[in-house]
């Protein structure tokens, strides 16, 4: 730790985690001084999609925080497609998984598996915060990895799921080794507009975790864009995950949303009969239908694609930062024959903690 960092710790350092969903933005702040958290506060902003820029109230709030504190670090959770991770490293691995390595920034974790993110998504996030600036972009896979290692590690392949409001990610880990990863949207991607110049990320394969090639920890990865201006403002990008070669995946992503599911599909859902309004909303029901559909498809890919050396999975550990119905849990247990373990987590709180480790490592 350099002299500047030691001196900086004597002053209040503000860490801000920004998590966007389709209709809301959550901002979590932690103030660190002398190595201790001295203040924590949060604020939520309502969003009205579609939007092509950061909400002005949110932007002004972040800029006021930057005026109030001398040291401010803003971290953003990337919840879009065009990110991922694969088991293995190097050009051959990416080619095998049909990922064009020239269009992504990629890093290696533990010299065992690779994570990557589209330069398009990185630039989109930077443009979104162009007036405020970004210090960190985190993939949900970085958060999932952090949640996983904070638990007792499993010495057998185990399925993990991080459930967020607009998406969920799935990863199969054996201790710290990634075998498989997938990213799924459960909401329409209309909150913020991307440019028309977007590659076909529907054809990418599974994805996950990121670390800097110069030895930065698994929690984040330094951004490396081709354009020099694009390198400014973001120091680290975390692992990302998406699955691309799943059978029928294009159809799932392009046509399915919880609002598209009709009465027939709902009637087919296990446990639908006798559902009480107070137990779960129709919206959550439809969302859980998608979660189960994507989960089942991802597991079929893991079991049947020769790219993966698969073993039967009898357990799924869910880190839930949103909401999961008891019906979905029962369906996973009854139809997929998996034991379900659930941990309620706070994604924005964990993002602040990870950013603190990055700055004062």
How does this structure look, described?
This protein is an alpha/beta fold. The chain has two domains: 3-78 and 349-359, Ubiquitin-like (UB roll) (Roll); 83-348, ATPase, nucleotide binding domain (Nucleotidyltransferase, domain 5, 2-Layer Sandwich). Helices cover 29% and strands 26% of the residues. The chain contains ten helices and 14 strands. The strands form three sheets. Strands 3-2-1-4-8-12 form a six-stranded mixed β-sheet, with helices on both faces. It has a five-stranded mixed β-sheet with strand order 11-10-9-13-14, sandwiched between helices. It is globular and about 55 Å long. The termini are close together.
What is the topological layout?
Layout: H1 3-8, E1 13-20, E2 24-33, E3 36-46, H2 56-68, E4 71-77, E5 83-87, H3 90-96, E6 104-109, E7 113-118, H4 119-128, E8 136-138, H5 140-149, E9 158-163, E10 167-174, E11 177-185, E12 236-237, H6 249-255, H7 263-268, H8 282-304, E13 315-320, H9 326-335, E14 339-344, H10 347-359
Parallel strand pairs: 1-4, 4-8, 8-12, 9-13, 13-14
Antiparallel strand pairs: 1-2, 2-3, 5-7, 6-7, 9-10, 10-11
